[in-house]
Every structure is written in structure tokens, then in C-alpha cells.
Amino acid sequence: MEFRHVLDLLPDLWRDLLAIPHLGLYLTIGWAVYLLGLGFWIVLQKREPVATISWLISLAALPYIGFLIYYFFGPLRIHRQRLRRVRARASLPAPPAGLTPSPEAIELAKLGQATTGLPPTTATDVRLLIDGGAKYAALLADIAQAREHIHLEYYIYLPDRTGTALRDALIERARAGVKVRLLMDAVGSGQTSRRFLKPLLEAGAEVAWFHPMKLRWFWRRPWLNLRTHRKIVVIDGLVGYTGGINITDEEDERLREDAYRDLHLRLEGDVVRELELVFTEDWCYATGQPPLKMQHPPPQPGRVASQVVSSGPDSPWEAIHRVHVGAIHAAQRRVWLVTPYFVPSEAARMALTSAALGGLDVRLLVPKLSDSRLVTYAARSYFDELLDAGVKIHEYGPRMLHSKALLCDDKMAIIGSANFDHRSFRLNFEISVMFYNEQLAGELATLIQEECSRAPRVRPDRERSLWRARLPEALARLVSPLL
């Protein structure tokens, strides 16, 4: 039967369906059973009440379709990886003494170690790389010097000019005998084809995908919503990169005037070991291979107190979330936050407003328009409360601000891949580095001051129409726990 004949039959089918006796009653009973069953499932997850209620209301408005939405995108824990991480971190050396002299810093370091298993350590050198041009130039130069191995993990790796340049640099090193391992997120890097990667594989490199979209048995929920948002590069165990910049032309200001404004780190010293440990755990998890046996260089204690903080749905502790909130509560003079996506939890929002109400200099730098209009509206729905508490809010534009950093007082700084939102705190695999160093904090403070000087402040008396501002913000606020 041709498709047009099927269409011709639809009116008759619809009429027959409406003729079924007590159809409305059956649909009502079916909807009630659906809602009770799905609600029972959601409540058993024991999430925050606000998020649970948001899921229940949203899915109640989408009969039957809501089940598929929750099945693919609802919260999910990964237990197997958590066990592997515990075993892998058991071999880490004891943290060096005397790195975090203040009681607040010691408490945060203990919190980070307790929730991740990664102890405080040091860096011999830390460089802030502003925008993709600086990051890509430094990265390609370091890759050219690689002698043993290159490990890379990215959320977004696109086969454009930037991605091709990096691929060709890796091919050259792989042909020279350097072991190259590239781990990409299957959703974020979904445009990167096998054809593009074929020359890299033929050169001897290994490539793996994090949570690939495979057909699975129905009773095994997919991990569509659980992504690795990390950006990690480790070269010979000596040099490490992490931060917010992916591999894409969209982040290279030399190629595009509208490239993202972003921030990245180049690290040397013992802290690189912790970056590599996070990568190797993700690599073994994604590939099913046994733990990699790495030959690390001798310890090199440095001048910059550092600590890697990783988090993801394989742990219930939300380590990056806790460290951010803890750092804000410990601050005594200022709290400066830079994030592209601002959808705070209740704990994070309370921490920011409490700091401002307590007389601290609290600043929030966000993009004027992010690449998600829904997230932009959700972020603005929190502005009135923050402004009333005394928080200074700046909106950066016209380029999209993609930097992720927190500065507290004169020494504490956190930089990494995590946004200040529910997704980064609870769903994504993220990585940040916490520093306790006056010079580095001063460099970050100078950068944030310069960014704020170019970003107009949000005023309490700004004009906000009902249909263009207040209503969209209120609606976005309702689903913010799900973003």
C-alpha cells in the first residue's frame, strides 16, 4: 500500500477511534496509571525536592511521551566507574605538607580530597591562556615536543580547520613513535567522522568514544544525558592542559570575529599527574581496557599549591559543586564568579547572596546572550534576588563568554570545565583545578576586572516588559532544575 493511501485512511481511523465507548475514561485511567508509575520511579531516585517536583509536573503535562523523555534524559548514576576510581586512586602519594597555610584553604583541600580521592599537590608553572588562539598555539608547540605519549579528552572536537591542524600534529607524533590516545564525547564530537579519523588511526593512534549511542536492551537505560564535558591534554606526564576551550573554529578568534571568549590553563609539575589519572580512568572506562601503566617523572614540588577536583554521576558527592559553595562561604573579602551558564542550586544561590549580604564584594560575570536562549532566561530569573542582596552583575557581549572561574579573596582561584549550573554540578563529568596562590589569583583578578569594565552592569531599575522578559524568565525558572 502506498503512503498516500495510508493518508487517505486516516480520517476514517480517527472517526473509528472516537467512536470507541468510554474512550475518555480509558484515556484518563491510562494517564493516571502512567503518572503513578512514573512518579513512583522518580520519587525513588531521592533527588532534591525541587528537581523531583519539576520532573513530575513536566512529565504529567506530557502523557506517555514523558516516559521516553525521562528514560533518555532523566538522572542516572554510574556505579561501576565509581568503583574503578576508588581502586585507581588508592595508589596516589600522600599530600605534601605546608601547601595550604590558612585554615579555610586546609578545609577546602580536605573537602576536595574526601570527595574525589585527589590530594592537594603543587604546580611548578601555571599559565592562563585567554581565548583559543593562545591555547591552540601553545598546545601545538608542546605536542611537537612530545616524546612518549599524548593523552587527549574533549567534549567537542570538530573536523574543521582547528580540528584538522591538531589531528595532523598528532599524526606526525604518532608516526614518530609517540603513543597517542584520543577520547571524545560521542555527542559533543558527533560530527567527527571515521573518515576524518582514519589517517590518525593508520598512524598508530588509539581513538575511543565516551558513552557512544548504541542500541541497547530496553531495560538498560541509555546514557544520552551523561556526557564528559572535560577538556584534558597531558603530554609525557610533564605538561597538562585543562579549562573551557574545546577543539573548534568557534573558539579561535583568529578565524572568527564572533569566537567564544574563553579561558584555559597550561600546567607543569606534580598536578599534571592528577590530570592524567582522571584521563586514564575515563579511558579505561570508555574502552574496557585494563588500567594504563604510566611512567611518571620524578616528583617536582612547585610554588603553586594546586588540587584537581573532578566530579560526575559516578559519585554522589558533587565534588565541584561542594568546593564552589565551600569556597564562597569561606571568603572574607570578595567573591568573583565568571560562568557562561548560570543556573545555581539553592545552596549555591544562598552562598552568593549570603556573601553579598555580609558585605563582601560579590560580582557575577555572564554572557549577555548565551548560545541557549532558555538558559539565558533562566539565569536572568535569578538576577532580582542577587541584585537585592548586593551582587554586582555584568553581562558580557557581543562575543559569547565561555570562561569558567571563581576567585575568592586574594589567593583562592578555581578554573576548569564546569559551569555554575545543575548540569555541570550533577550530570556531566567535569574537571576543575583549585589553586591557592596570590600571584595566580592576582592575574585572574586583573582579567576579570578587564572583562567587567567592558561588560555593562545589570541595573535593578532596568526595563523589563511582561512578554519579552518577565514571563519567559518565569517559565524558564520552572524548568531550571532540569537544565
What portion of residues is helical?
A: 40-55%
The average pLDDT score comes to: 86
Question: Can you list the strand order of the major beta sheet?
Answer: 1-9-17-15-14-10-12-13
Number of strands: 17
The helix-and-strand class reads: alpha/beta
Low-confidence stretches: 1-10
Largest sheet: 8 strands, mixed
**What share of residues are in beta strands?**
15-25%
Inertia-based shape: globular
Could you tell me how far the N terminus lies from the C terminus, measured between alpha carbons in angstroms? 44 Å
Radius of gyration computed on alpha carbons: 24 Å
Number of helices: 17
Which descriptors would you attach to this protein?
483 residues; alpha/beta; 8-stranded mixed beta sheet; 7-stranded mixed beta sheet; globular
Describe what this molecule looks like in 3D.
The protein is of the alpha/beta class and 483 residues long. It is 44% helix and 18% strand. α3 runs antiparallel to α4 (65-73), α5 (79-89) runs antiparallel to α10 (271-287) and α7 runs parallel beside α8. The longest helix has 21 residues, at 23-43. It is globular, with a radius of gyration of 24 Å.
Question: In terms of topology, how is this protein built?
Answer:
Blueprint: H1 3-18, H2 23-43, H3 49-60, H4 65-73, H5 79-89, H6 103-116, E1 121-123, E2 125-130, H7 131-144, E3 149-154, H8 161-175, E4 179-185, H9 194-202, E5 206-210, E6 232-235, E7 239-243, E8 263-268, H10 271-287, E9 304-311, H11 319-330, E10 334-338, E11 342-343, H12 346-357, E12 361-367, H13 373-380, H14 383-389, E13 392-396, E14 405-408, E15 412-416, E16 420-421, H15 422-427, E17 430-436, H16 438-453, H17 466-479
Parallel strand pairs: 3-4, 4-5, 10-12, 11-16, 12-13
Antiparallel strand pairs: 1-9, 2-8, 3-6, 6-7, 7-8, 9-17, 10-14, 14-15, 15-17
Helix pairs in contact: 2-3, 3-4, 5-10, 6-11, 7-8, 8-9, 11-12, 13-17
